[in-house]
């Protein structure tokens, strides 16, 4: 059998072409086990047919086994024989992680990938069809919904880089066959035999039992998982249609009148999709159903909320807000800063409070954007608003309340001063004192929250 005739090589070559990867640098998650060793070996040979392909191996040393250093050396030597650049990344795994050691190792691994892989990078992992079956069964045992049971995706975005799985439709027997044919000597991790870990138990006990009765169980799970992915795509499309009618930005919020007009199932689907948009894992269905019921019954002065991992969904007046709690910054004691926009007409606010962006606007905005200062609320601020001159100088506190700005946002609102006078509140209004003439081009300033 010649190398280019092996089905696995053909699969990899087709994947590279389909995903337009033949001219890119690929980062390979390389544990030294049989799956990642085969993936790396096959990519090294694919370089003969795609000579502009660049491959770089990343070995995450979890430092959980006594042989960890020896494994890193083995991986380095293996890459040397394939003429592939190699990087070992030692990580610390929190062994008291609330979701167990497997989750802790995964978290540490992805943190390392995130720090090392450049923007728009491509990370290839060696998950195969048997891994997919284990994932679906594990999530079924944990009572996950359609999204979880859809399993792993061949391609997904993770922060600033993409994660791709070229072997996801390949049976493990094909990988073992390739390794045997090319005499690949992988690392054997003894922890993989420990059935105290649920995934190992599924691999060692459950799947063999199912395969004894249903030999094609892996392929059957694959077909079911693909149908579930198709169903999830339809639900996501429906959520996008619903959000287009009700979602607003800066700050992110939903129009409650539109939201509550939907049946409960669509409300839940919309919330789950909206949270995923912010990379937040949704809470369980009971919590979301309770929130929907509370929103339906809440009077105007009631503010039900739902905590979900690192965020909060909270009602205020006629809106449902998505809130990422800050680290309790005391903005009233922050010193004033000179407002100087960069070459993109942007100014980055301190403490991850967002950015200010200046736009040229005909007949609207400030006359100029020099000699300005950024401050935050300390109390007692007043402003004479352009277009509301009859009201004279009014308190900022009252105006923010009238503009329906939620209380938790008010203290972080960036205020623009000229000398000691408040002249601009981004997104809301400008002082009569510095507004440009109707026949002039002015500057409007937008606050984009993060």
What's the layout of helices and strands?
Blueprint: H1 7-18, E1 25-29, H2 34-46, E2 54-61, H3 68-82, E3 86-90, H4 101-116, E4 122-124, H5 129-141, H6 146-149, E5 155-158, E6 161-164, H7 172-181, H8 198-213, H9 217-246, E7 247-248, E8 253-255, H10 256-260, H11 264-277, H12 285-297, E9 305-308, E10 311-316, E11 319-323, E12 337-338, E13 346-348, E14 355-362, E15 372-375, E16 382-384, E17 393-395, H13 396-402, H14 407-410, E18 415-418, E19 421-425, E20 429-430, E21 441-448
Summarize the structure.
By secondary structure, this protein is an alpha+beta fold. It is built from 14 helices and 21 strands.
Protein described:
By secondary structure, the protein is α+β, with helices and mostly antiparallel strands. It has 3 domains: 3-215, 3-Layer(aba) Sandwich (Rossmann fold); 249-323, Uridine Diphospho-n-acetylenolpyruvylglucosamine Reductase, domain 3 (2-Layer Sandwich); 331-448, no CATH class. Helix content is 38%, strand content 20%. It is built from 14 helices and 21 strands. The protein has helices at residues 7-18, 34-46, 68-82, 101-116, 129-141, 146-149, 172-181, 198-213, 217-246, 256-260, 264-277, 285-297, 396-402, 407-410, and strands spanning 25-29, 54-61, 86-90, 122-124, 155-158, 161-164, 247-248, 253-255, 305-308, 311-316, 319-323, 337-338, 346-348, 355-362, 372-375, 382-384, 393-395, 415-418, 421-425, 429-430, 441-448. It has a 6-stranded mixed beta sheet, with helices on both faces. A 5-stranded antiparallel beta sheet has the order 7-8-11-10-9. Helix 2 packs across helix 7 (172-181) and helix 11 (264-277) packs across helix 12 (285-297). The longest helix has 30 residues, at 217-246. The protein starts with 6 loop residues before the first helix and ends with a strand.
């Amino acid at each position: 059998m010649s190398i280019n005739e092996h089905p696995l090589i053909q699969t990899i070559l087709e994947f590279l072409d389909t995903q337009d990867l033949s001219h890119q640098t690929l980062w390979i998650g390389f544990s030294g086990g049989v799956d990642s060793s085969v993936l790396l070996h096959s990519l090294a040979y694919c370089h003969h047919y795609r000579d502009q392909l660049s491959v770089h191996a990343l070995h995450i040393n979890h430092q959980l086994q006594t042989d960890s250093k020896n494994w890193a050396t083995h991986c380095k030597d293996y890459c040397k024989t394939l003429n592939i650049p190699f990087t070992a990344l030692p990580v610390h795994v929190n062994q008291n992680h609330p979701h167990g050691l497997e989750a802790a190792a995964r978290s540490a691994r992805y943190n390392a990938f995130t720090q090392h892989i450049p923007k728009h990078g491509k990370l290839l992992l060696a998950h195969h069809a048997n891994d997919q079956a284990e994932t679906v069964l594990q999530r079924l045992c944990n009572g996950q919904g359609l999204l979880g049971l859809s399993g792993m995706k061949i391609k997904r975005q993770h922060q600033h880089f993409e994660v791709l799985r070229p072997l996801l439709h390949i049976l493990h027997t094909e990988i073992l066959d390739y390794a045997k044919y090319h005499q690949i000597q992988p690392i054997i991790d003894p922890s993989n035999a420990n059935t105290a870990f649920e995934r190992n138990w599924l691999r060692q006990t459950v799947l063999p039992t199912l395969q004894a009765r249903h030999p094609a169980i892996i392929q059957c799970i694959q077909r079911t998982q693909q149908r579930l992915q198709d169903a999830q795509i339809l639900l996501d499309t429906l959520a996008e249609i619903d959000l287009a009618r009700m979602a607003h930005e800066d700050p992110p919020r939903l129009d409650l009148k539109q939201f509550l007009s939907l049946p409960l199932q669509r409300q839940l689907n919309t919330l789950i999709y909206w949270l995923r948009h912010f990379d937040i894992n949704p809470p369980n269905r009971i919590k979301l159903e309770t929130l929907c019921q509370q929103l339906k019954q809440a009077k105007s002065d009631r503010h039900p909320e739902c905590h979900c991992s690192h965020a909060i969904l909270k009602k205020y007046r006629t809106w449902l807000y998505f809130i990422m709690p800050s680290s309790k910054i005391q903005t009233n004691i922050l010193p004033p800063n000179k407002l100087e926009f960069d070459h993109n007409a942007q100014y980055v606010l301190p403490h991850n409070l967002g950015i200010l962006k200046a736009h040229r606007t005909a007949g609207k905005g400030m006359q100029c954007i020099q000699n300005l200062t950024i401050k935050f609320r300390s109390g007692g601020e007043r402003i004479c608003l352009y277009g509301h001159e009859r009201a004279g100088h009014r308190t900022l506190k009252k105006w923010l309340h009238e503009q329906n700005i939620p209380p938790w946002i008010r203290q972080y609102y960036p205020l623009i001063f000229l000398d000691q006078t408040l002249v601009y509140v981004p997104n809301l209004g400008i002082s009569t004192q510095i507004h440009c003439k109707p026949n002039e081009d002015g500057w409007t300033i937008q606050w984009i929250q993060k």
